[in-house]
């Protein structure tokens, strides 16, 4: 398999227009769950960058459980996140839900994110694979490691070796946290595959005050980076406020994470 460590013993470094993921340093991605306005995403970019993030996250096409929930600003949101990222010299990661939107989203975003709900949307995987762009591949809500590796294989089979695994927790019998963050996936993926893996503690636990602990643990487990949800005013966030960090908590978390990173 193209994704396997056997096929490619060296770590693959994904180069996002100069920002290297998997080169031994930690890559930080931060931003809101949803892009809400130009002001909101600019403020998120400012905070993200101050804490050391080089990649700005933010959803414009949102996979919401309820069809009545906010679905995202779509292309308008993509314009805002691109503008905010450029202003703060950052790269962009945003989700692609539909094959039909790939070319449009690729004009604004440096990394295409495949959401957990689409990990096994094989046609979508093939289509994003064809773009050659870096792909952030979230683990499916009930995706096994083998299924996740095979999802990456769909992308690699298109000749695209720019895959970034994102562990974001899986559904288990436990309901006290939103998901169960599987940190054993980090050393396991690193053993089985040459592609980098980052950890999303925000969706992993769903509760903001648990996020910093799991972020530190992710780096300690050997992750190549983190993707974290932040918001200037989490209580009023349009989505995922309960798991979003405010500026103060994010900055404190980043100080702690940098200590772990240096110790690695
Ligand atoms: C997100 O990153 O906002 C998101 C929807 O994540 P996931 O696909 O992991 O649920
Ligand atoms: Mn979210």
From TrEMBL:
Secretion signal, residue range per the UniProt entry: none
GO biological process: aromatic amino acid family biosynthetic process
GO molecular function: aldehyde-lyase activity; transferase activity
Organism placement in taxonomy: Bacteria, Bacillati, Bacillota, Bacilli, Lactobacillales
Keyword list, A-Z: Transferase
Domain DAHP synthetase I/KDSA: 13-255
Organism listed in the record: Enterococcus haemoperoxidus ATCC BAA-382
Source organism superkingdom: Bacteria
Protein name according to UniProt: Phospho-2-dehydro-3-deoxyheptonate aldolase
Region of the whole protein represented: 70 to 333 of 340
